[in-house]
């Protein structure tokens, strides 16, 4: 049955069938050939039960928040301000790519949206200032992955929903690893460009007067992040309520920057509906597929198989990590999460690992999937913004940052406190 699932999933995706539809088709097939119960009779009830969750309401709000910030052009002013603070390091403007992606990750909740917004602003600078296209574009692709780690994260909301774990605790757990990854990306950039200066562009130096003046473009975004995340952490608001407040804050920021228009609002709402519909179709399809898998006894069989191998908990965890690395090369990231979570997470918890900690470990592996070929979504988003050259250049440029993610995976396994210290200290 596992062979049927993997081959069927990859085969249907290769036919360019939408992911949500693929998950339903696989569920129908497993129900017909492997399940002992006529699950189709309960399909309507299952779809309603899955979608009727207050936790999921936060998703369209966070998407709308990101859409407003991106479409109002605030990314351009943020990028310009961060250029004045970080471009003095070896690598120059590449650090502004990563810093801008980090800041937008703290508001958008989406890796693809973050990569797209930074690409649109940054790419014209690469050619004008003579940057190596590989490193410049690879840094944007890697920085964009932070959108699903640094809170608020749509993927962490989905993980919390599927595992019935605390979303505020997940947000807390993702903050330090997300910031450490951003620092790691910048250190990797500085190290490479110190060894090979030709890969980076000119180091740009600005006076403190200019830097202080640029803060007016950064403070509103930082205040928005503190408002959203702080209200969640201190129990003032639920993630859904905080997301709604964030949308209001994003509108106020757009107005204060003179970027507000009804056309922008319309485009943001339409974009939100499209992205939310795609996410919900995947979540509902995955819920149906996982229900059929449970009915067919896959979880029990997989548990018995791993137990029969006689592996230690750590070795079993490393096998799961390897599985995610391989599957991430071929399966879209959100789909990978929602398909595997109901099967893998119970096994991981049974081995004695913390469900919050594993959620952060999984997100790092999913981030890696966003920039590993052949199905690394951020690679294609950045290449689309480039509009020239080959996508192989973006892939090569992202490779050093994949190594940083491997280091983070090892660090999380060796020191779970990296993810668990903040949630435990603020309980």
From TrEMBL:
The keyword Zinc-finger does not apply. Residues 6-418 form the TRAP C4-dicarboxylate transport system permease DctM subunit domain. It is found in: Cell inner membrane. Keywords: Cell inner membrane, Cell membrane, Membrane, Transmembrane, Transmembrane helix, Transport. InterPro entries: DctM (IPR010656), TRAP_DctM (IPR004681). The chain crosses the membrane at residues 6-34, 55-74, 135-158, 170-195, 215-236, 242-262, 274-298, 304-327, 334-353, 359-381, 401-422. It is a multi-pass membrane protein. Part of the tripartite ATP-independent periplasmic (TRAP) transport system. The complex comprises the extracytoplasmic solute receptor protein and the two transmembrane proteins. Belongs to the TRAP transporter large permease family. This is TRAP transporter large permease protein.
